[in-house]
UniProtKB/TrEMBL annotation:
<dbReference type="InterPro" id="IPR000524">
    <property type="entry name" value="Tscrpt_reg_HTH_GntR"/>
</dbReference>
<protein>
    <submittedName>
        <fullName>GntR family transcriptional regulator</fullName>
    </submittedName>
</protein>
<feature type="compositionally biased region" description="Low complexity">
    <location>
        <begin position="7"/>
        <end position="16"/>
    </location>
</feature>
<keyword id="KW-0238">DNA-binding</keyword>
<feature type="domain" description="HTH gntR-type">
    <location>
        <begin position="36"/>
        <end position="104"/>
    </location>
</feature>
<feature type="region of interest" description="Disordered">
    <location>
        <begin position="1"/>
        <end position="20"/>
    </location>
</feature>
<dbReference type="InterPro" id="IPR036388">
    <property type="entry name" value="WH-like_DNA-bd_sf"/>
</dbReference>
<keyword id="KW-0804">Transcription</keyword>
<keyword id="KW-0805">Transcription regulation</keyword>
<dbReference type="GO" id="GO:0003700">
    <property type="term" value="F:DNA-binding transcription factor activity"/>
</dbReference>
<dbReference type="GO" id="GO:0003677">
    <property type="term" value="F:DNA binding"/>
</dbReference>
<dbReference type="InterPro" id="IPR036390">
    <property type="entry name" value="WH_DNA-bd_sf"/>
</dbReference>
<dbReference type="Pfam" id="PF00392">
    <property type="entry name" value="GntR"/>
</dbReference>
Length: 144
């Protein structure tokens, strides 16, 4: 199959893809064999496509029910994906108009990506949130 974000099957407009949902050239799908929970897989795909500029600010995403049906997950899981990404500033809910990729500036996007990478590395090193935040504060203090 190709890259689930921009592989050959992602070429069409919004539609149901093979085992996924197409959104502006991106196929969102869930790999049941993955050890990663479905909501995390979808969140990662949306964030990565946004970071790479494939999903641009203002792009409308499918309704929660449509995403759930096309990807093969529950509506509760699809709603969780959107809610988490809205809380993180990646998506913007506009009521009955739908859910869209949020408007962001390049500096904010770069900072978010740096924070995500740091959080991944800190967690891999066994650090908790408080220890990680303390480490960042210490690093900034040494820059002054």
């Amino acid at each position: 199959m190709g890259d689930p974000v921009t592989g050959p099957e992602a070429a069409g407009a919004d539609a149901r893809g093979p085992g996924g949902a197409r959104v502006a050239g991106v196929v969102l799908s869930v790999d049941p064999a993955s050890g990663e929970p479905p909501f995390r897989q979808l969140m990662s795909q949306i964030v990565e496509a946004t970071r790479r500029g494939v999903l641009t600010p203002g792009t409308r995403l499918p309704a929660v029910r449509t995403l759930a049906e096309n990807v093969g997950i529950s509506t509760a899981t699809a709603a969780k994906v959107y809610r988490e990404l809205e809380d993180g500033g990646v998506l913007e809910g506009r009521g009955r108009s739908g859910t869209f990729i949020a408007e962001t500036d390049a500096a904010a996007a770069a900072l978010a990506r740096a924070a995500e990478l740091f959080a991944d590395r800190a967690a891999a090193a066994g650090a908790g949130v408080e220890d990680a935040v303390d480490a960042v504060r210490t690093a900034f203090a040494h820059r002054a």
